[in-house]
Write a structure and sequence with these properties.
heterodimer; A: 641 residues; alpha/beta; MetI-like fold; Rossmann fold; 2 domains; 4-stranded antiparallel sheet; B: 328 residues; 8-stranded mixed sheet; 10 helices; globular; binds iron/sulfur cluster; binds magnesium ion
């Protein structure tokens, strides 16, 4: 297999990258529309001699001044008896040429300045950014007018003047992106192995600045076209060529208005608007693709996704919250089989109880939790099962009814939301916003007091309500999110990995807080984590998931001291235990299954140390063990009994 | 080997935090690392433990030469490397001998590079792209890092790998240069438990197979228990307790260490125990508390703690701690 390295080396990932890019771009309607608009006008410019019925600046007949549009002259004629359509078509060439070349100059200058300032920092940055600020303050157009008026108004001059003055925003944008990329860990890693600056710039900074530069370029082109039109309109265009701006200038200057010849003005104006609009739409589309923002906040929109089959209605128990045989699939548009993210999972939660949900990343924990609240992303569908809250079937509720349950019945602290707080609004404001969002009729004057009360509940001093998220430590931000989740006095809180990124001491503080809230407010909590130790420290019941199914479900003591499922047992062996520091940790070989390509039979079979023939052929069902609600899904249980 | 492998003495790093007001005379300093001493033997594993903001990562950057120390010295294989610049580090082969594995495998890989580009990049940087054993080295590094068979991964992009696999890629990129010391800054904290054991076992194995010394930086003592020879507990830029792993775990002397050990979750509900949960967070390292820097949070502080800074005391030849309660 030594050959692979060589063959791989010659493979070209660029094509693959472009395809991936195109597939995403396709989805942006504005982007595609912009691209089409732009392509049309570029084709018009390129094939101008074929399209134009008359030659460039060709006077058809002096007597045909300001003739309205007709079959002979599609866009009418102008003051010199020239065909407006032909001039429009040739004008596209001039306007686009100026736009593209001037933008090219601006992008090169702005890009270089931004890169140098962002990457090298220090004196260079100071100098460049001062200069940029000065240039930014001076209004472009008057300066251009002055310069062009002083020099010979040739097309080349105009391109240079527009190009040399239009780089400032590019410099700023590129600088801030460079700064952002530079502070990322992979750049530090490259420095640690001794990479030179040139290497870092070309291999690490540029590839990540490029997308922004492309978006910026699109905007700069449209700005350049506008500037050229403005200059021409002011009579500073190159008299030997005819751009759209100049067409406007001539029409205006030579009485098109008073002659009522609207066509001489409207069509060149239309050309400018068309290109600028096309470029703006394209820019927006590109931005969406290249700059996806993370919108996983507590204000995520909900989607009605329930797709229940008709079947006998199971009887709910007396529990506060109960999931019965829930199955959730993620569908895709590419016609592949849906990902069976969660299958046949059940649990119950009573008042004041703490349920631990444990499993490796990708095993469906978050999916299951989002499904309880029907907040799944649009591809996710509950394909089977029920969720009962106070005996009401949540899967059968309308969206309006569901909204009454969300936040005021069951509330959730989203995974990673700690890092998705709005950086430009104070934490207090964001909590107030959460209150208003979920209780629109909340008396406005009561809100500040409520915010303080919530903050107090989670142990944040009132004087910190006006601080911004970046002034909060990770632990404090997590507390603030818990405060938001408490805003509508829910009975159930789902906490999705609230301690994962935190230090052990802060973890302990958050756990202590949740435990306190549970005792004080009688909350029931679902605590999602991959940390078995935390679960052992505070949960009553534990649901261990593997690859979308229940591996084992039991009270906490059984899980740790009498587990029946090989996965639970292996997971315990992999977990460090300071009471046995000499214990060698064993990892579970292999990886969790891909949910769109599940193995036949038991989902754990490829990694299970106790696997036997039947496991590969038949999916184990959920076995009840004893009568304490202990459930495990493994063929071994049947065999030993 | 009489020569010490790595010797750190009185190491300090202060960052300027800007002046409190325009008229203030002295700029304020962030005392990120504030007098750190320790030594490391060849192929030894030391765990550096402490809360976020205690200066662990800054210490690692100082050792890597990615930050310049304010004071103190670092000796590597007997040579003073404290103030070497980038070029000198490269010419003394330090950029090959000392490698770093960063905290976040999601952040420390460039998303636009393929795995092959990432793993071969160190060779490119060190001008070793045309050595005859290049492919073999890449293959070996990847397989030693548990990416087997290597060619399955070469053409993939980071986003196509799981967290554990990404961290293996980072480790493979470090191994390809055959280092002697690996600084691992929270290498497993972003990973799933089942994979954590794998990465830790991998590092333990490398240390035996390749004689690599490891400085394992973590906030979670639990994760390194069985694998580190020694542990150093850091608080606000200083080491407050250092000793052999087992001894510190069984018999912690510093109140901070005791608290840290008490909050490590024990995976057995029958062993739920009283935990010493310190309130608040590591104070801002701009204003280091007077006396013992731990005293505002110390559950057993006495009056003199606010006044005198406790010195490091040797409890026996492999265990030291800095607490006034130990002075008797
Ligand atoms: N470049 C810098 N400029 C100013 N202050 C800094 C800089 N780097 C680190 N600090 C500060 O130094 C202190 C120690 O930081 P460091 O990153 O070393 O902590 P840490 O223990 O590694 O934390 P974590 O586990 O969160 O990474 C912190 O208060 C931090 O804000
Ligand atoms: S059913 Fe078979 S493969 Fe699955 S966990 Fe049980 S023994 Fe292992
Ligand atoms: S010196 Fe005092 S404050 Fe510091 S750790 Fe010891 S008892 Fe606590
Ligand atoms: Mg750190």
């Amino acid at each position: 297999m030594q050959t692979t390295l060589q063959t791989v080396e010659r493979s070209n990932p660029l094509g693959v990258r472009f395809l991936g890019f195109w597939n995403t771009f396709k989805k942006s309607r504005t982007g595609v529309l912009g691209l089409v608009m732009l392509t049309v006008i570029i084709l018009v410019a390129i094939f101008a001699p074929l399209l134009a019925p008359y030659g460039r600046l060709e006077t058809v007949s002096i007597s045909d001044i300001y003739k309205p549009p007709s079959a002979l002259h599609l866009f009418g004629t102008d003051d010199a008896g020239q065909d407006v359509f032909s001039n429009f078509v040739f004008g596209a060439r001039v306007s686009l040429t100026v736009g593209f070349f001037a933008a090219f100059i601006s992008i090169i200058i702005g890009g270089t300045f931004g890169l140098v300032a962002g990457f090298f920092g220090g004196r260079w940055e100071n100098f460049i950014m001062r200069f940029t600020d000065i240039m930014l303050v001076i209004p472009d157009l008057p300066l251009m007018v002055v310069i062009v008026a002083l020099t010979k108004p040739s097309l080349l001059n105009i391109i240079f003047v527009i190009g040399l003055l239009g780089w400032t925003t590019t410099a700023r944008v590129v600088r801030s992106q460079t700064l952002a990329v530079k502070s990322r860990k992979f750049v530090l890693r490259a420095r640690a192995i001794g990479a030179s600056r040139g290497h870092i710039i070309s291999r690490h900074i540029l590839p990540l600045v490029m997308p922004i530069l492309v978006v910026q370029a699109v905007l700069v082109i449209s700005l350049a076209i506008l500037n050229e039109s403005a200059l021409s309109f002011l009579g500073l265009g190159d008299p030997t060529t005819l751009s759209w701006g100049q067409m406007l200038n001539y029409a205006f200057g030579r009485g098109a208005m008073s002659a009522g010849a609207w066509w001489a003005l409207v069509f060149p104006g239309f050309g400018i608007v068309w290109v600028v609009l096309g470029l703006t739409l394209l820019g927006q589309g590109l931005e969406q693709v290249l700059n996806p923002r993370l919108d996983t906040h507590h204000l995520m929109p909900s989607r009605p996704v329930v797709q229940n089959e008709a079947r006998a209605k199971p009887v709910p128990s007396q529990a506060l919250l109960e999931a019965l045989n829930l199955s959730i699939h993620y569908v895709n548009d590419e016609g592949r089989a849906p990902a069976r993210a969660v299958e046949n999972v059940s649990f119950t939660l009573n008042e004041g109880e703490l349920l631990g949900l444990v499993g490796e990343s990708g095993c469906g924990k978050t999916t299951l939790m989002l499904a309880l609240l029907r907040l799944l992303p649009s591809a996710g569908q509950i394909v089977d099962g029920r969720v009962y809250f106070h005996g009401r079937d949540l899967t059968a509720l309308s969206e309006v009814e569901m909204n009454e349950i969300r936040w005021s019945g069951i509330s959730i602290v989203f995974q990673g939301a700690m890092n998705a707080l709005n950086p430009v609004r104070t934490v207090g404001d964001q909590i107030a916003e959460a209150i208003i969002k979920h209780i629109p009729l909340y008396p406005r004057e009561g809100i500040p007091a409520r915010v303080t009360e919530l903050l107090d509940l989670v142990g944040i001093a009132a004087d910190q309500r006006d601080h911004f998220p970046h002034q909060y430590s990770g632990g404090m931000r997590q507390r603030a999110l818990i405060a938001m989740a408490l805003a509508c006095n829910p009975q159930v809180i789902i906490a999705d990995e609230p301690t994962t990124a935190l230090d052990v001491m802060i973890q302990a503080q958050i756990l202590e807080l949740l435990d306190l809230l549970r005792k004080k407010l009688g909350l029931a909590i679902v605590f999602v984590t991959h940390d078995l130790g935390i679960v052992a420290e505070m949960c009553d019941k534990v649901l261990v998931m593997y690859g979308g199914v229940t591996a084992e479900y039991a009270n906490v003591d059984v899980i740790y001291n009498d587990s029946q499922h090989p996965y639970t047992q292996e997971l315990l062996k992999a977990f460090p235990d300071l009471t046995k520091p000499k214990k060698k940790l064993t990892s579970i070989p292999g990886y969790p299954p891909r949910l769109d390509a599940l193995p036949a039979g038991c989902r754990f079979a490829p990694r299970c140390p106790a696997v036997f023939d039947r496991c590969h052929a038949e999916e184990p069902s959920l076995h009840q063990i004893g009568n304490d609600g202990h459930i495990a899904s493994c063929h071994l249980i049947e065999r030993t009994r | 080997m009489s020569k010490k492998f790595l010797e750190v003495r009185g190491l300090k790093k202060y960052f300027e935090a800007g002046r409190p007001s325009f008229f203030a005379k002295d700029p304020r300093n962030v005392h990120a690392v504030d007098g750190v001493d320790f030594t490391l033997r060849r192929s030894e594993v030391i765990a550096l433990v402490g809360e976020s903001g205690c200066g662990k990562s800054t210490l690692a950057l100082l050792l890597m030469g990615l930050e310049n120390p304010t004071a103190g010295s670092i000796k590597f294989e007997g040579m003073d490397i404290t103030h070497l610049n980038d070029g000198e580090r490269k010419s003394h082969d330090l950029r090959r001998k000392i490698q770093m594995v960063f905290q976040d495998p999601y952040e420390s890989l460039n998303p636009t590079q393929t795995i092959e580009e990432i793993v071969t990049e160190p060779l490119l940087v060190h001008g070793m792209m045309n050595t005859p054993d290049r492919d073999e080295r890449v293959q070996k590094a990847m397989e030693d890092a548990g990416l087997k068979p290597a060619d399955v991964y070469l053409r993939r992009y980071p986003h196509e790998l799981s967290g554990g696999q990404r961290q293996r890629v980072v480790i493979a990129a470090a191994l390809v240069l055959e280092p002697e010391l690996i600084l691992a800054d929270e290498p497993v904290s972003m990973l799933d438990v089942s994979i954590r054991a794998e990465v830790i076992n991998l590092l333990a194995e490398l240390r035996i197979k390749r004689q690599i010394a490891v400085i394992f930086i973590t906030h979670d003592l639990g994760s390194v228990g069985f694998f580190a020879d020694r542990v150093a507990v850091m608080y606000l830029g200083r080491i407050v307790e250092i000793g052999s792993m087992l001894e510190v775990l069984e018999n912690p002397k510093h109140p901070y260490t005791k608290a840290l050990i008490s909050v490590i979750p024990v995976p057995n509900p029958r062993l739920r125990h009283e935990r010493i949960i310190l309130q608040g967070e590591t104070p801002n390292p701009i204003n280091i508390p007077s006396g013992c820097r731990f005293h505002p949070r110390c559950p057993v502080a006495i009056a003199s703690c606010a006044l005198s800074d406790p010195p490091m005391l040797s409890l026996n030849k492999s265990h030291q701690a800095a607490c006034l309660l130990l002075v008797k």
